Amino acid sequence: MAEITGGVPRGLRDCFTIEARADQHLSVTQPGRTHTNIVIQLYRPPWHTRSTEDGLQVTGHPLPGAADGADAKRWSGALPTGGKYLLVIGTDHGGGSYRLRIAIN
């Protein structure tokens, strides 16, 4: 288990990679947070990022319920493939600080 903390200004996103094997269970939660504007996206490998005038563009296949625009606050499930997953952290409005707990079993 790991925890990551930080902050994201309005309109920007933080990205982290999570390496895991197929069929492992991944859980991303925001412990102690009942009301937060922090949202996450998760992409299975392979994925690609590039900077554009509008910010970061991610191409790839998001995990169910964790796509851009889904405004996921947490995610949990079995991973379909092994490799490096992309965790994107943003906000659904304004800027914000985050504390995320990541567990892989």
Spell out the blueprint of helices and strands.
Elements: E1 2-8, E2 14-20, E3 25-29, E4 38-52, E5 55-62, E6 75-78, E7 83-91, E8 96-104
Antiparallel strand pairs: 1-8, 2-7, 3-6, 3-8, 4-5, 4-7
Summarize the structure in words.
With 105 residues, this protein is mostly beta strands. The protein has strands spanning 2-8, 14-20, 25-29, 38-52, 55-62, 75-78, 83-91, 96-104. The protein has one domain (2-104): Sandwich (Jelly Rolls). The protein has no helices and eight strands. The strands form two sheets. It has a four-stranded antiparallel beta sheet with strand order 1-8-3-6, with no helix packed on it. It has a four-stranded antiparallel beta sheet with strand order 2-7-4-5, with no helix packed on it. The radius of gyration is 13 Å and the shape is globular. The mean pLDDT is 95.
Biggest sheet, open or closed, and with what strands and sense? 4 strands, antiparallel
Fill in the CATH topology: Jelly Rolls
Q: Sum up the overall morphology in one term.
A: globular
Q: What is the overall pLDDT average? A: 95
State the helix count.
0
Secondary-structure-based class equals: mainly beta
Quaternary structure state of the chains depicted: single chain
Give the number of DSSP strands.
8
Low-confidence stretches: none
Element-by-element helix/strand order:
EEEEEEEE
Main CATH class: Mainly Beta
What fraction strand? Answer: over 45%
For the record, the count of structural domains works out to 1
Widest sheet: strand order? 1-8-3-6
Radius of gyration: 13 Å
Named CATH architecture: Sandwich
The span between the termini is: 9 Å
The helix content is under 10%
